[in-house]
Design brief:
Elements lengths: L3 E3 H13 L5 E4 L7 H4 L2 H8 L6 E2 L2 E4 L12 H7 L4 E2 L5 E5 L5 E5 L5 E17 L23 H6 L4 E7 L3 E4 L4 E20 L6 H17 L5 H8 L15 H8 L4 H12 L2 H12 L5 H9 L1
Parallel strand pairs: 1-2
Antiparallel strand pairs: 2-10, 3-4, 4-6, 5-11, 6-11, 7-11, 8-9, 8-10, 8-11
Helix pairs in contact: 3-11, 6-8, 6-9
Length: 305
């Protein structure tokens, strides 16, 4: 079970007992006094983001702490973590999700070794987290587990030696999602809005998912030395993003070299062949995975009619 602690308790113990140990936790009463509790309707967000295409990424909006800052408060214990020297943050280190009722995000862990502070501003979301100490099968060089896992119950996942935690996140609560914890999320309610802070830690707890990610990075780092491979890395691993390795975790190649320095070329080569073996699964399931993807403006426009 994912523990729940109060906002007051979090100020004393969150960093020590959860963040530094990479353990998920829910913090209650997180949004007390926020104007966003009432202001952040689908229509309000549509108005704010509609003319800012630079802030629309894939299935969410991005922003920094100057945008809409009058609507929410960054607690000091969160800001202190974001300002730590061992934390890397992208230019836009905050995200807003606005999801239609029953929208489902399939199992994945956030790329770039990112953790997430996920605040449920409006509505409710049903979550399933997969313990990264479990053996989980992923698509080739991807942070998406096999699509079939999305249709398994916790008991069925347990039968495959995967530890899963299910719970609801209610308005006013914040969920800490450590790096490499795969999660599936289903939104409910006519108005469903989340606010995220994100970042990347150089040093994360060891687990099979972390080991695999670092072996893939070492493999890509070797291929990156040869210029013809660089656009292929961006297209197929970075999912059409320019400079995937150059921008990884907000620090780029320096970060990648630091987390892969102890991985041998032989281990990276073995990882390459292991990833190639799953290519047939990618071809088979790609249309199913694409069906989950909806742009945030499209979702809001559908929701508000």
């Amino acid at each position: 079970m994912i523990p729940r602690i109060s906002f007051g308790e979090a100020q004393e113990c969150f960093q020590r007992d959860y963040f530094d140990l990479d353990l998920p936790v829910i913090i209650t009463d997180f949004t007390q006094g926020w104007a966003a509790n009432s202001k952040w309707t689908m229509g309000y967000l549509l108005e704010k983001f509609h003319d800012k295409p630079q802030l629309v990424e894939k299935t969410w909006f991005v922003m920094d702490n100057t945008f809409l800052c009058e609507d929410y408060t960054t607690p000091p214990f969160i800001q202190n973590i974001q300002d730590r020297r061992d934390i890397s943050r992208p230019k836009h280190d905050m995200r807003v999700w606005a999801n239609a009722n029953q929208h489902t995000t399939p199992f994945h862990y956030d790329g770039h070794q990112q953790y997430v502070f996920n605040v449920q501003v409006r509505g409710k979301k049903s979550w399933t987290l997969l313990d990264p100490q479990s053996y989980i099968q992923y698509y080739t060089c991807s942070n998406f587990p096999l699509e079939r896992y999305n249709h398994l119950s916790p008991d069925q996942l347990a039968a495959e030696d995967i530890t899963a935690y299910t719970f609801d996140l209610h308005a006013g609560e914040m969920l800490f999602i450590p790096a490499f914890w795969a999660h599936k999320v289903c939104a409910s309610g006519e108005e469903n809005v989340n606010l995220n802070w994100i970042g990347s830690k150089v040093h994360t707890s060891a687990n099979p998912q972390q080991a695999r990610e670092h072996e893939i990075l070492k493999m890509l780092l070797i291929l990156h030395k040869f210029k013809p491979f660089r656009p292929l890395i961006d297209r197929y691993v970075g999912i059409e993003s320019d400079g995937y390795l150059e921008s990884y975790a907000g620090l780029g190649l320096d970060f990648v070299k630091q987390v892969t320095q102890k991985i041998s070329h032989r281990t990276a080569l073995i990882r390459l062949f292991q990833e190639i073996r799953t290519l047939s699964q990618v071809r088979r399931d790609y249309p199913k995975l694409k069906a989950y993807e909806k742009a945030p403006l499209q979702q809001i426009q559908q929701a508000v009619g």
